[in-house]
Amino acid sequence: MAIERTLSILKPDATTRNITGKINAIFEENGFRIIAQRRVLLTRSETERFYIIHKERPFYKDLCDFMSSAPVVVQVLEGENAILKNRAIMGATNPEEAAPGTIRALFGLSIDQNTVHGSDSAATAAQEIAFFFKETDIVG
Ligand code: CMP
């Protein structure tokens, strides 16, 4: 299987509850390497651009409000099959539907405050990583 990189975000509900270390431990226990990481308070317009694909969805405004409400941790995870594997470790978007033991089942508060974001395909991962990181910021 191929070594891949995926973009992960620890959302405001993770930073405000001070559980970013616990989540990073789960990533590392599952074999990922965190090869870039930055804590940042996103502006409203940055969140709008990052989530532009959801622009027409009814939850877009609440999503952008939430993601710019407090700091997030943006990070690049590297590992075998990282994109799909991270989605499995995160669990379903809605924490109520997330499998036991997944990050969203353990920590998610609601479909909006669902603790983590992870890229959903190779194309998205490349785009999302480039949104936050220069190649020289990523040390594999
Ligand atoms: P995320 O993986 O960051 O991608 C978009 C986010 O929108 C998603 O996680 C959820 O937190 C949020 N969201 C709110 N309502 C919905 C919905 N009905 N379907 C998908 N995502 C939603």
Structure description:
- This protein has helices at 12-16, 20-29, 44-50, 60-67, 82-90, 103-107, 122-132, and strands spanning 3-10, 33-40, 72-80, 116-118.
- It is globular, with a radius of gyration of 14 Å.
- The model has no long low-confidence stretch (mean pLDDT 98).
- A four-stranded antiparallel β-sheet has the order 2-3-1-4.
- By secondary structure, the protein is α+β, with helices and mostly antiparallel strands.
- It contains seven helices and four strands.
- α3 crosses α4 (60-67).
- Bound molecules: adenosine-3',5'-cyclic-monophosphate.
- Residues 54, 59, 63, 93, 111-112, 114, 117 line the site of adenosine-3',5'-cyclic-monophosphate.
Helix content: 25-40%
Give the amount of beta strand, in percent.
15-25%
Structural class: alpha+beta
Q: What are the segments in which pLDDT stays under 50 over at least 5 consecutive residues?
A: none
Please give the number of β-strands. Answer: 4
What is the mean predicted local confidence, pLDDT?
A: 98
Task: State Rg.
Answer: 14 Å
Bound ligands = adenosine-3',5'-cyclic-monophosphate
**What series of H and E elements makes up the topology?**
EHHEHHEHHEH
Strand order of the largest sheet: 2-3-1-4
Please work out how many helical segments DSSP would assign: 7
What is the rounded distance between the termini?
Answer: 18 Å
The main sheet comes to: 4 strands, antiparallel
Q: What would you call the shape?
A: globular
